[in-house]
Amino acid sequence: MAITKTVEIKSIRYSAATTVPLEEPECVWVDQVIIIDDPEDDQLPIVKHDTYRLYVDSDTTNETELVQKIHSAVFNK
Question: What is the pTM of this model?
Fold first, then answer.
């Protein structure tokens, strides 16, 4: 068997700009789980949880295509 990589989006959260209690710019959070697995390997699966906090000016060029698309959909109105 081959090693597989699964990326699963768990949630997407959006926050408009705020001034109270803190001044925060508009942002979006993307929570995802990455699973590396091979049914023939007893050491796997490896599970990694990631949360991306993205702002309108965030550089997403090194992020996955899905994260780039979410950033674009939220901020390119």
Answer: 0.72
pLDDT digits (tens, 9 = 90+) for 56-65: 999 999 988 8
Can you list the pairs that 6-12 forms with residues at least 24 positions away whose Cβ atoms lie under 8 Å?
6/34, 6/35, 6/37, 7/32, 7/33, 7/34, 7/64, 7/66, 8/32, 8/33, 8/34, 8/35, 9/66, 12/70
Name residue 35's amino acid.
Answer: I
Q: Where are the beta strands (DSSP E) in 16-45?
A: 27-37
* Structure tokens given for 47: 């599970």
Q: Please say whether the beta carbons of 33 and 48 come within 8 A.
A: yes
Burial of 21 (0-12, 13-18, 19+ CB in 10 A): exposed
Domain count within the chain: 1
Q: What's the full length of the chain, in residues?
A: 77
